[in-house]
Design goal:
Layout lengths: L1 H27 L2 H5 L19 H5 L7 H22 L7 E5 L5 E5 H13 L4 E10 L4 E9 L5 H19 L7 E7 L9
Parallel strand pairs: 4-5
Antiparallel strand pairs: 1-2, 3-4
Helix pairs in contact: 5-6
């Protein structure tokens, strides 16, 4: 759903900016006069000497009592919509994961419980100092976002392989999921360099 909303919004925004930029470019290059076609009467920018928003357009409603409250309310609504859209990009965190119990009844597993179980098993892996797990997506098809903090001399390939083959496989099997897509970020613990004499 969010991907569809993003695509539609970005498509509409792109079309609007393309139309606005094309109209300004047509007027700025004086193409209607050169090529002999007309621009709609409501379009303010008709030639290279015109301004996009004249003095009358800028000061037209300034003396009206409703103008500034309307502008402030519209900007506040726009800001609220943009903040909602930004927060929605982080991904939906499922409160529960539906577990396939293989008897026809749907069981529910607390999403945070599954996150903690994956974290604890990941932290027990060789070379892993700390793990953080966050589930996103739908409760029938969650995605795991895993951050591993590796010890200074840990082998990243080994830690990633163990995480994939053991930890995430256990979580997937125990929750009865067909698949558990995962995004893993690896980082190394900061440490002082050691000097040898």
């Amino acid at each position: 759903m969010l991907k569809t909303v993003n695509r539609v919004l970005l498509g509409l925004l792109g079309l609007g900016l393309f139309a606005l930029g094309g109209g300004v470019l047509l007027g700025g290059l004086d193409l209607p006069r050169r090529w002999g076609f007309g621009i709609p009467g409501w379009w303010p920018f008709r030639g290279p000497d015109d301004v996009l928003l004249g003095a009358e357009g800028r000061t037209r409603w300034r003396e009206e009592g409703w103008w500034w409250p309307t502008v402030i309310a519209a900007l506040a609504v726009l800001l609220a919509l943009l903040l909602w859209w930004l927060i929605a990009q982080r991904g939906h965190r499922p409160g529960q994961v539906l577990v396939n119990s293989e008897d026809g009844a749907a069981a529910r597993l607390d999403g945070r419980t599954l996150e903690v179980a994956i974290e604890e098993e990941a932290q027990a892996l060789h070379g892993v100092s700390r793990a953080q797990v966050r589930l996103t997506g739908r409760r029938t098809a969650p995605t795991a976002r895993v951050r591993l903090l590796l010890e200074p001399r840990a082998d990243p390939a080994r830690a990633l392989g163990q995480l994939s083959r053991e930890t995430l496989a256990h979580a997937r099997d125990s929750a009865g999921l067909d698949r558990l897509p995962s995004k893993v970020r690896l980082r190394e613990v900061r440490h002082r360099s050691q000097r040898t004499a």
